[in-house]
Amino acid sequence: MKLKVEQIIQMVEGTFCGDAHLLSNVVFGVTTDSRKVNQNELFVPLIGEKFDGHRYVDIAHAEGALISLWQEDRGTPPEHNPVIVVKDTLQALQLLARRYREQRNVVVVGVTGSNGKTTTKDMIAAILSMKYNVCKTKGNLNNHIGLPLTLLQMDEETEVAVVEMGMNHRGEIELLSTLAQPDIAVITNIGDAHLMQLGSREEIARAKFEILVGLRDNGTLIYPQLDSGVSKVLNELNLDDLHRRHTIQVGMDEDSDVYPTHMEYEHDGITFKHNQLPDEQIYVPLLGKHNVWNALHAMTVGKLLDIDQEMIKEALARVKITGMRLEKEKGIKGCTILNDCYNASPTSLKAALKLLEDSSSYCRRIAVLADMLELGEKEVSLHREIGESIDGQRLDYLFVYGELGKHIAEGAEKVIAKERIFVYQDKIALSHHLIELVNQDDLILFKGSRGMFLEEVVYHLKVK
Questions:
Q1: CATH number at residue 423
Q2: CA separation for the pair 11, 20 (Å, rounded)
């Protein structure tokens, strides 16, 4: 972001308190963290349940901030530091981002979905970077704070922004879509994540399709093949809204506009072909059938923005994905680790287990699974179903961690001998057992919800 102070005042509808000569000064960038202020930035003090960024305004200015926002109900603004007084600092940040996006001649690609958002976002950015100057969401900054900050990272050279949109409740994707106003909207899939908050997969689908609210007229919606349980949500959408946009369905069979025609698993990735160019073979250095799905979404975006097919193939062949998403790592004693600790839902966990079970080139296959959180009243039965879905002939050992994880073990007892199932509530004890058990050429999958911090066990098994 590169704006004059007077422009920011107008965009956030605020009142300036400071020396008038600062109005023509240029602000370079924005931050909400007083510990990470760069010279001449705008500092936005946010307010949470246990913190108030207004306490750090003086520190932010001492570190080089040119100006700060100030929420009007926080008392008298400091006289010695210039501020822009607004009704609400968070809403002002969001308003600034929306209006900045409207000023910039940039193509915005918005990505949401129950699973695969970050991987698909990284793939799209890799493909589009072959031709354009791309700004993308860093890490997982995909909420009502992270998305505005991403938009405000766009500089004068940015041609395309790829922004991830996360959610917990209805209305959140609508807000993010309104801020970003995407030209292309991507929904990766409709899964089980956030069942606790939303209650059903139909409600999850409705929440994801909120991305249409901000999608620009004549924009394109890329959405997944829907099962019968949630396909009715499409019929609820305003047909006028859909008619003003293009739609492309990505799926796994001929009922979709884009689908794979061949898949071949390799030791470090997967090769596939698709119906749009049936003779072209694509390689992705990522494991799992679901990453073909993610790649097809990304390739569709690339095609819409005129990326040459050879460039798409090259970008996917060397794509780098944000960590702890089926990340392959070297383990002790020559074992191999699949670190998928970033998050977990029934859909993504079943996909990861299928990948593990299909990895027949390894000596033994071991699953280390932790609780799946935020599943609501069905959480026990959903964990038990995971255990029951395991192929006991293709999994050598199952380790579970957590209060809910023990229900995975209960379900697994129907398909796996009890002596091959281990239940833990202590990560250190779990780590010691794994260290003693693993051998060369073992493959170990680690997967659990973010709040379970299963990567703490991975740390003990990794080659340092």
A1: 3.90.190.20
A2: 18
Tell me the two tokens of residue 382. Answer: 């959903």
Of 284, 291, 319, the residue nearest 128 (C-alpha): 319
Please tell me the distance from the alpha carbon of residue 410 to that of residue 448, in angstroms, as a whole number: 17
- Does the global pTM surpass 0.90? no
pLDDT digits over 146-202, tens only? 999 999 999 999 999 999 999 888 999 999 999 999 999 999 988 776 666 767 888
The residue behind tokens 């959405």 is: 223
The answer to whether residues 340 and 261 belong to one domain is no
Name residue 447's beta-bridge partners: 340, 369
Q: Are 41 and 66 in contact (CB under 8 A)?
A: yes
- 21-75 residue pLDDT tens: 999 999 999 999 999 999 999 999 999 988 999 999 999 999 999 999 999 999 9
Concatenated DSSP letters for 261-314? EEEEEETTEEEEEETTEEEEEEEESS-STHHHHHHHHHHHHHHHTT--HHHHHH
- The residue with greater pLDDT, 228 or 11, is 11
Domain that holds residue 217: 104-317
Task: Please state, in angstroms and rounded to a whole number, the distance separating the CA atoms of residues 167 and 144.
Answer: 9
Q: Classify residue 97: in a domain, yes or no.
A: no
Instruction: Report the number of distinct structural domains present in the chain.
Output: 3
Nearest to 256 by CA among 224, 297, 209, 294: 224
Encoded amino acid at 136, one letter: K
Are the C-beta atoms of residues 297 and 291 closer than 8 Å to each other? no
Q: What are phi and psi of 416, to 5 degrees?
A: -130, 140
Shortest CA distance to 44 belongs to which of 137, 142, 148? 148
Of 131, 124, 251, the closest CA to residue 183 belongs to: 124
Do 161 and 242 lie in one domain? The reply is yes
Same domain, 42 and 12: yes
